[in-house]
Amino acid sequence: MIPNNVLILGPPESGKIRLAQHITKDLDTSTISKKSHSGLIYNHTLKTKYFSTDLNLLIEEFPEERPVEAEKFLDSLREWKSAFESKEYEELRDALDGIIFTINPDQTSKRDWKEIMHCYYEIKNSIDEGSFSTVIASTTQSTECLEELEDECIQYGIEFIYEGETGTNEFKEKLGKERVQEILESHEWSHISPSEPQEYFKHKEDKVDSMTRGLLEPENESIALDQLVEKLRLERSKATDMKPEEKENYVKLVIEELIDYI
């Protein structure tokens, strides 16, 4: 099977390796350089009830210097973005199904967050329109800091995940690193092997029936219409600045999530 590729991009000590190990369960550290994590590849076979696919998790790191200095973070990101958008990286851009940005809020200056998210947004837009992107923040002591960072992500239609969270939110979405796993399992990959096609379609039909009943039966406490409306409002805000073709694909993914949510 042709593998799908996901780029995990971030500075040193922002959780790239922790995330890759969480997804793949590969805890071997013998090949990890102490100087730079750029170029590391984690291979993983993702299996769900409906399909299986091979993934390459490609690790890229900026800046090269350690420890990371907040004053140099933005310049290093701009330099990396410029190289990534060049002709030299066209083949890599075309091969990506998604990008996961890892960030340690304590390594950056708040005054740079808007520009950092703008860079992430432009990197995301340089790859295939059907790809996914998300920002996952590593542990910080400030809850307020995380909320401000999440607000910046929402402005650019990029999902924000806090690594330290667990459980589920009011929309029945998983939190923390488990949310990344959920995104991987729900993405429409370029290359997959269907498990049981008939079982998959039967599952979707059942979900649509369940959605219909839930919306028509307000007394059913397991279906909260106000939560569904709030979910739609949040997703709409994320799609505001997307290109028309990108927005169409995003809406399709939202509909898939809503069916599973109901």
TrEMBL record:
Alphabetized Pfam families for the sequence: Adaptin_binding
A biological-process GO annotation: vesicle-mediated transport
Name assigned to this protein: Increased recombination centers protein 6
Top-level taxon in the UniProt lineage: Eukaryota
GO terms for MF: protein-macromolecule adaptor activity
Annotated PANTHER family: INCREASED RECOMBINATION CENTERS PROTEIN 6
Keyword Phosphoprotein: no
InterPro entries: Irc6
Family: Belongs to the IRC6 family.
Function of the protein: Involved in gross chromosomal rearrangements (GCRs) and telomere healing.
Entry keyword set: Chromosomal rearrangement
Keyword Cell inner membrane in annotation: no
